[in-house]
Amino acid sequence: KYMDINFDHAMAPVGGNIRNYLLEKARVIKQQEGERNFHIFYQILAGAPDAMLTKLQLTRDASKYAYLTHGGVTSVSSINDKQDYAAVAQAIKELGFSDQLNEDLHKIVGAIIHMGQIKFEAEGDGCKVAEAGVDAVASLLGTDTATLSKALTKRVVAARGEVFETQLTVEGAVNARDALAKAVYDRLFTFLVRNINEKLAVKTDKCKALGVLDIYGFEVFPNNGFEQFCINYCNEKLQQL
Predict the structure, then answer these.
(1) How many CB atoms lie within 10 A of CB 132?
(2) Which of 3, 7, 97, 111 is close enough to 140 for a disulfide, judged by CB 3.0 to 4.6 Å?
(3) 172-190: per-residue pLDDT in tens?
(4) Burial call 182-204: b when 16+ CB within 10 Å, e when fewer
């Protein structure tokens, strides 16, 4: 991400702006060995009030959730997820986000966690949802189970002016589920950045700005997707500037 930090004539910070590039969406569904998913997932499980976790239909045990355990690590000795959640909650409050918006943000993060619990089993030429996790996802996203199940197990294809509905295999449904999780997280992240920028916007042009660029390091994993290629390519070009 790239950040502009704005300062007044006395060099006191008065605002800023964040630009996000190349969000590592692949981390949402799978992590490399020894790594965790994004911190917010573990922070909510560790620090959210019991009443909120009940609404999200979650427990505090991160090891129960598939999307949070691919790296084999759910806690880090140098990180206190409960304290970090409190810091995030305080930041949300200071930014002026409403209680309803705060709850909706929690529901979306909770829905992503539950998506990893959705399983499929073969049925004829296609497949069907085999686990009840879809109920929690549908509830948290404000849709119904039947509509979500259909979206995950069937594909709509338009060709020559006609629309066809085809069944997905188990592998295809898993890919659809993972794609949905990544897309929802990406849109949530973009929404947050946009709203934070609105709160941090400077009302005057009479200020100085310090630009800070935060980039991922060049990494090569056992399995590298196109997303990682883009991150590495960007990193390499920036190092040449």
Answers:
(1) 12
(2) 111
(3) 999 999 999 999 999 999 9
(4) bebbeebbeebbeebeeebebee
Question: Which element (helix H / strand E) includes 159?
Answer: strand 154-159
CA distance 20 to 194: 10
Range 53-88 burial, b when 16+ CB lie within 10 A, else e: bebbbbeeebeebbbbbbeebbeeeeeebeebbeeb
State how beta strands 120-123 and 208-213 pair: unpaired
Tell me which residue has tokens 């930014």: 95
Instruction: Please give the model's pTM, rounded to 2 decimal places.
Output: 0.88
pLDDT digits (tens, 9 = 90+) for 50-78: 999 999 999 999 999 999 999 999 999 99
Buried b / exposed e along 14-32 (16+ C-beta atoms within 10 A): bbbbbeeeebebbbbbbbe
